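Protein Entry — a single chain follows
Fields — amino acid sequence, structure tokens
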Amino acid sequence: MMSRLIGELTFKEVSRLRESSILCLPLGSMEQHGPHLPLDTDAVLAEALTRAIVARWGESFDLWQLPVLPIGLSREHVWAPGTLSLSVQTMTVLLRDLCSELVRSLPARNLIIVNGHGGNRGILEALLRELHGDFGLNVCALHTGALMSPLSQSEMPEIHGGKDETSLMLALAPHQVRTDQIAALKTPPSSEAVQSAILDPAVSWPWSSGDPKLADQGVIGDAKAASAEIGKAILERVVEAAGVVLRNLRERSKAPSN
């Protein structure tokens, strides 16, 4: 079967792509995810989810997977060793330069960014209009964390390293989960503090996952409630939701540009 990974094509095989093809860019981060998940959790999940989306919808929408971008904006986690974060300026230049290169080197003019890290959302929302207007890309960002959250039934919001992310890792990369570390985790002391500092739609704060009012060992959520079964349900949810987004992206490519 023909590979739909751009990196596995030869330069002559790039001719298989068309202007209507859709490029899929996994975007992750390198940051603490508690004592039980690896630093590259968001990159692992973004790449695995993108691969699952391409496997499900690749033929229907002519999808092609780009290599993962493994580092993003993670200043909320820099208190922890191993966390790497780009600056806003560097992230902006990186994404703009990458899109410029995509337009130069590939015929496809449609791009979906599969974002595995909530901290990347703000800059993506700010840049999408530039990527569209300056490079002629029909582009959108799929925020996988927002698609995970509706499955959470715990009182504590699932923000980081909790039930949702841990479940997805148990389903997709179980060998990377330190299950022996989960039992000692505690849920953060105040869901109200989490709602106020992170989820209030009216106010933005420079919150940190190192704040003991918000997190336990960097975790905001209930990792003890995680299971591979929940992870499989999340995977199915994300992949099916992606089909709707891809269909909308394709329709937008046919609409007159504003």
Summary: The first strand starts at residue 22 and ends at 27. Helices lie at 41-61, 88-105, 121-135, 144-148, 163-172, 191-199, 228-254.
